[in-house]
Every structure is written in C-alpha cells, then in structure tokens.
Give the backbone structure.
Amino acid sequence: MSTNVKKKEQQTSEEPKQLSGSSMLIEALAKEGVDVIFGYPGGAILPTYDEIYKTGIHHVLARHEQGAIHAAEGYARVSGKPGVCIVTSGPGATNVVTGIADAMIDSLPLVVITGQVATTVIGTDAFQEADMIGITMPITKHNYQVRSVEEFPRIIKEAFHIATTGRPGPVLIDLPKDVSLATGMFDYSKEVNIPGYQPTIVPNRLQIRKVVEAVTEAKKPVILAGAGVLHGKASSELFEYVEKMQIPVVNTLLGLGSFPGDHELCLGMAGMHGTYTANMAIYESDLLISIGARFDDRLTGNLAHFAPNARVVHIDIDPAEIGKNIKTEIPVVGDAKEAIRMLLDEEGKPGDTKEWLDTQKERKSEYPLWYKEDGEVIKPQNLIELIHEVTNGEAIVTTDVGQHQMWSAQFYRFNKPNRWVTSGGLGTMGFGFPAAIGAQFAEPETPVIAVIGDAGFQMTAQEMSILQELNMPVKIVIVNNASLGMVRQWQQLFHGERYSNSLFPIQPNFVKLAEAYDIKGMKIEQLSDLKGALEEMIAHPGPVLLDVRVAKEENVYPMIAPGKGQHQMEGVKPQ
Amino acid sequence: MKRTITALVNNTSGVLNRITGLFARRHYNIESITVGVTENPSISRMTFVVAADSMENVEQVIKQLNKQVDVLKVKDITDESIVARELALVKIVATPQQRGEVAALVNPFRATIIDVGRESMTIQITGDHTKVEAFIDLLRPYGIKEIARTGITAFNRSTKKPTHDPYRLTLIN
C-alpha cells in the first residue's frame, strides 16, 4: 500500500489547485506520509469515504470505532509516527473518546478526524450530532472545527504539527459534511505558524551545568527513565550516558525498554508493582534525575515518602509537568535527546558512588521478582517468562490494564525501545488487542503478541475481523483467570474478600470464538503443554488465539498498598 | 491568596470555554474573569483573579494556560506596577430626601448617578478593587437592592513605579 501513497505523492503538484474538502484531506494525508488510516464510515463522513474509495489510500476497517482508535494508538506507539483515525459524527465520534483520552495521558501522537453535521444545522441537535469540540477539549492537545473549506489545509497541517512536536498528543479535527463537499483552493506549501505553540526543544545550558554539578556531588544518584525517552528517541543517548556516569536506572511502566532491562545498572520498574530495588533506590537516593516521566501516583505512592532525601532534577519537554507533583530543584525544559546529548557534552564526572552501586547489586540479587510454581497449574508469571523465551525477547507485547499488564511489565524484561505497548495513564481495558493490530501495521516483520486478560479481551474482541480479513499474524494470549484479576485482588486485600462482580465463572468458549473468525484457537490448561503451544503459536504464519488457563487466585507482588510509601512494599520475598 | 493573571488569547470562538474548562477541571477557583478585544482585533485580553492555596498552584495555572494553543501570553501581574480597574453598578434604596446625601458620596469617588427612581438610585463606580469595595460599603446603610460587577481588567503601567506609592493620596485611582 505504501507504493500507492508514493505514486500519489508524485502526482501531487506543489501548485495550489481547486479541490473539495474531502480530497484536500486525502491529498494532505498523502503529503504527511500517512500510510495507513484506521476508521469506520458513516453518514457525515461519507464524502471522505468516497475519496478513500477513489484514491485507494490504505484504510483499515475496524468493527467498532474504539478498535480503530486503539489500533491508531498502537501504530503511533511503535512507529513514532502519528496514528490517523477517521470516524463519523455523533456515535462514531463519541466511540473514540476513550482512545483519545488514553492517547492524551500517554502522550501518543494522533490525528483524529470526526465527521460532523453540516454547518447549517450545527447546534440544532441534528441527526447524529454531538459536540465533539466541547467533549474532547479536555482530552486533546488541541482540536479544530473546520468552519470553511479555505482554512482546511492549514488546519490539517497544524494538526499534524501539533500532534507530533513537543510533547506528542492527540489532535481532533471536526469536519462538517458541507465543508467536506465544498470546493476551495488547496495549498499545502505554507509553513506552519502558530504563535501560541512554540515548544522548547533545546534546554538551557545553565540548567544542564547545574545537573552536571549535582551528579558530581551525588553519592546516591538514580535516573528515572520514562516514556519521554522513547518519544524523544533518546535510548541510545541514555545508554551512553549511563555507561559513562555509572548511574543506576529505574523505569516507569511506560518507560520500559528505554534502557535495556538486562543491563546490570537497570533496577527495573518502580511504582506500585515495581521491584523492591527500584523503589528503594528512589527512596534512598540523594539525587533523582527524572527524564520524561510525570510522577504518576501509581509510581510515587504516598508523596510524603517519595524520594524524601533527594535533590530532584526533572527533565521534561512539558514545563507543566515540572513541579506538578514533586518539588523540583533543577528543572530542565527540553527534549530528552537534546538534554542527554548536552549532558554528555559537558564532560561531567560521576561522584563517589561505589557503595551505592554495591547496594543496588546486592538488592537485585537479594530481592528478585518472584512467584511460586505450583505443579501443573500455570502461573501467569511463568507464562510471560515463557513468552519471552519463545520470542527471544524480541516481540512487541501489548496489554490492557491490570494483573496481566503488571506481570508482563515485570517478567518480559524489555531490552529494546518501542516493544512495549500498554495503556498506562488511563488504564483502558480493551486497548491491548486492537493496539496490537496497529503495532503489526507499524512493524509487519516483528512478532506481535497481545497479552490480554479474559475480561478485557471481551471489550474489543470483534476486531478479530481485521485479522481474519487481512490474515494478520497477531497472536492473542489470553491470561485467563476467569476474573477481573486486579479488581479481584483489591477486593481480596481491601474489601474483605467480597468479590463484587469481578468473578466470571461463565465465559464464552474463546477457542470457538476465534474459530468463528477463522482464527486458529487453542486452549491450554496444563503447564506441561504450555511451552509447546507457545512455540506452535509463534510458528503459525497466521493469527492465533491462545486461551491459557492460569492460577485463578494469583496476586501481583510486590505491592505498595494504596496510601503507603514506596519503602513500605509488601510481598518483596516469597512468603 | 488572590492573584491577578492576564492572558492574551486568540479571539476565536470557544477560547473562553477552553480556558474556563481548564480552570474547572484542575480545580482552580476563578473569582472574576474579564474578556475583551485588544488593539489587535484578532487577539483578546483575559484578566482573571484567581484564589490559590500557594504560589506553586499559581505557577501550575500559568503553565496549564500556556499549554493551550490559543493562549499567546500569560502573566501574573499581581506584584507588578499595574493599572487595574473594575466597574460596579449599585442600585440602592433612596428616598427623594436622601438623594442629595447620596450625591455627596458619589462626588469624591468620581462615581456617577445613572438612574433615579421614586425610591431608588443606581450608581456607577469604576476604580480598583479596594475603591469599589469601599464605596459599596458606604452605600450599604441605605439598603442595597442590586449589585452588578465586572471583574477587573488590567495591564502594566508605562513607567515602572513601585506598587505602593506613598505620595498617592487621592481616592481616585
């Protein structure tokens, strides 16, 4: 399909020309290098779908708009390019709201085009009208309603610019039907000029020098690497800096893969279900260097106990994140890659950290992540380790939210950037499977495994249609504990074992469900069958659904209970 | 604490909604808000008075405002040398016998009587917040029927003088 797009680009002359709104959109998408659109048609967006039909631009038809937007997110996360999603007005548009909010909080670049009723009837509660500008104002980086066809090319160009620069995020364009039918001059050559949007990319050198000094003075430094390192494509710079300065690295959930998980200086993920070593390193540190992380409450635990003795350096492209949750001594506003490069240029010296590094090494061997094997019952942690083994740790892993997400984060040991696609900030069930489809479009040659809970899978299972239609080799692994695992865990620990609406004794036959979509389905109940089944799944050229029955009452540990500080982790060792 | 913040924003529809929505969802409290077009018709000036718990909180408000694509410039001008004005319309109970007395109050404040009814008077007052407050306080004994107030609108003075000018004796600010 990419060849189609290229052909289109060649045909496109730079001369301004008369075009309809809908052809402007398709032309502009081609010029932006968009090679796949995820969407679903409907009344108000019909003129655009007519253009899609005529031009043959690559469009992937989801079976629910939520599937389309999560696929666009997965594509954006893995490719680093903006995900594009086109849906109709009203219900089509409101169905993408969850995905937009998810992309906003996890900083994923999306351009979402929603159809809208004609400008002549906007505000009259017309058929399939919903105020998408009002609805998405708090959950988009910016949004536009196209009032006239003349301003449409400028809006599309600005939308791509805003979505992909600075801190990435979703931008919504609300396109009234009459505007998409009207004709106007299409000129895409003008440079973007948005006076109110000038993100700071290059940090202030004086601030960088302060960081260098702080590092030299520090005896217990630690780096907290977040998703900003991935968005800024700064993994190799981070690696170089860490090797040079010998500072241990802790990852946020979304930052996994920004630094190799197997590296001796990697202490693993911090936060509610992070490693004891990582949480204690932050707790005891005298210098915390956060790069592209936003101190989410699931990371910090009780703020009163978060890094109580540390001087805090906060490097972030979004100045509003600095000082929002944590008092910062040295703020650095700028792109992660630029900032780390500048740190490398400064030729700073590490402080006296030998004792600190020894402590980390001891802790890592003393407090590894653990689980207890249980005969023939499959432990979910073991499942994730085996997935790592059969994919050589090279697969792209996507998840929803909950226990299976935490086990994947803990046990897959991500060594490379952009191999981990998860709903972090919003914690969206139903995200992981369609996101896997988007990820597979971004990297057709890489194995993509959607590790999904039995509950979350049922929220977007209909997207198996895409796999069936395109014979996409996405592998679905259902971590099936017949419950809403994390909810069940919290009910067990904090609600007196009253399992309110969290147990799913009655389930669909997932194998048959897969087979209904012509997808190979397998059910595994015995540990002895598991590895073979996983190998068979990976070897199969098409899509596979693997329903893995795991221990039903397994809990995620270690854990910082709600309200507790990061030094108060429970379950750090096998009981 | 109360802080006065001005923002230059694009004069397009929906901008006010963006800004007030931001305040609401981040739990910042707006005491007053004034919006009007500037010398450049494509740009509006918004002046907010916000109640904040701490300076960190004010800083967050400003940063969040700055993140809005339609916001061009944001400034906390509370501690700067500024010209700030607000307007209030006050309708009070006033018998024909009291009219002269009220007129005597109106004069030193450079307020104006803009409407007189059989048993009421409406007075317009402009000035900074303290002056308007002081004036309304003086009118209170007559019995206030209605008050309508704008928020403050403000910008920096041309010459940077200290905020508290000891020689400024006049009531008319």
Observations:
- The interface with chain B takes residues 133-134, 137-138, 141-142, 145, 162, 194-197, 318-320, 323-324, 327 of chain A (CB under 8 Å).
